[in-house]
Write a structure and sequence with these properties.
About 45% of the residues lie in helices and about 10% in strands. The chain has about 375 residues and is an alpha+beta fold. Bound molecules: fe (ii) ion (FE2) (2 copies).
Length: about 375
């Protein structure tokens, strides 16, 4: 698109309604553009209207007002209510704080950098999954303005959320497969621990959002697949110990108890910290009698406290060479009894309220009974 294109558009006649976008609204934006003094901008905007990528036009005032958002951009920002506001600065400020805004403002007013800014933006809300965007802002010059600052900017957004999660999952899935190939736990066990943990986190979020401020949509989603990583460190425990058909000796226990630290080391470079919190602390106990660090109460990360409960529930329900599986009712009674000693007593009430879902998850994902 040539920004110097002087083709005159009949603003009132030439604007067709986009699908899913009220005609009146589009006309309104076009009028606003026209007021800015150059009809060529209306041509650019019209071309944006049919682009599949999210793109917006913003003004150069301190608020970086949104002058136009194409339908994909509106849809994207509305998912986070960031589109509610008429200004890019307000949306960013609320979501990301002043630093990013200062960086953007500096970039787009710096002639040496070509009045551009490129970088990552994350829109976070407690009740939504975080939206990770790459934003590319570049100037729109207009002939009539002259001036030494661009009067308008285009902002292209690239939604990285799905890519990033997909990549992270692939990375951890292979690690998980490697560790499970050694451990005598099944893939279904870790899957069930994922499901229980997600269910419990969701129940805490819904029943007592003020008491569990740390839990947001990201937390619920993350624990729903990172809980499976709790025993990844067992990859470092000798096979003769992992597959031993009977009680471990004290020396063997010493080696076994290293798995949380090994797991945390393996996951140390993983971008989501929850993974290593879970690996490191899922054997800690509320009263400080757990391992590896005898952490006490809330010094144990919440994600690990949730996974500990889920993991133990599943272990109690599972047949081992040396024990029969427990019934759902007995397992629940034992866990509730251990609230305040082994488990966070704040979790047990909510656990009780969703215990029937734990039973359903267990039954729907049963291990094949081995002969
Ligand atoms: Fe473990
Ligand atoms: Fe486990």
């Amino acid at each position: 698109m040539d920004m110097r294109d002087r083709d005159v558009i009949d603003l009132d006649m030439d604007v067709e309604a986009d699908e899913g976008r009220p005609e009146e609204e589009l006309r309104d934006s076009v009028r606003k553009m026209a007021l800015l003094g150059d009809r060529a901008i209306a041509t650019i905007m019209k071309s944006y209207a049919s682009l599949p990528e999210p793109v917006a036009i913003i003004g150069n005032g301190p608020a970086l007002d949104f002058l136009y958002q194409n339908p994909p951009c509106k849809a994207l920002l509305e998912r986070y209510h960031a589109g509610e506001t008429r200004s890019f600065a307000a949306a960013l400020w609320r979501q990301m704080g002043p630093q990013i805004l200062a960086a953007i403002k500096h970039g787009i007013s710096d002639p040496a950098g070509g009045f551009m800014w490129k970088g990552d933006i994350a829109f976070k809300r407690r009740d939504k999954l975080t939206l990770d965007l790459k934003a590319h802002i570049f100037p729109l010059w207009m002939e009539s303005e002259g001036g030494n600052r661009p009067p308008l900017y285009s902002v292209y957004f690239d939604d990285m959320t799905t890519d990033r999660h997909g990549f992270q999952r692939l990375y951890l899935d292979s690690l998980l497969k490697a560790s499970l190939s050694k451990d005598n736990e099944t893939g279904l066990h870790v899957q069930r621990v994922n499901f229980y943990s997600r269910r419990l986190a969701l129940a805490l979020y819904e029943s007592e959002p003020e008491a569990w401020r740390e839990i947001d949509r990201d937390f619920i989603e993350d624990i729903g697949w990172l809980a499976a990583m709790h025993d990844v460190g067992k990859i470092g425990v000798p096979e003769r110990i992992l597959s031993k058909n009977g009680p471990l000796t004290e020396d063997e226990w010493v080696e076994m108890r290293e798995h949380p630290i090994t797991g945390a080391l393996i996951l140390a470079s993983f971008p989501n910290r929850m993974a290593q919190d879970i690996a490191r602390s899922h054997h800690e106990r509320w009263n400080g009698s757990g391992y590896p660090f005898n952490l006490l109460e809330t010094a144990i990360p919440l994600s690990a406290r949730i996974v500990a409960m889920s993991d133990v529930y599943d272990a109690l329900r599972t047949r081992r060479p040396y024990k029969e599986p427990m019934s759902h009712g007995t397992a629940v009674t034992m866990i509730v009894k251990d609230g305040g000693s082994h488990f966070d007593p704040g979790l047990t009430k909510t656990f009780l309220s969703v215990a029937s879902d734990f039973a359903a998850i267990h039954d729907a994902n049963r291990d094949e009974e081995r002969a």
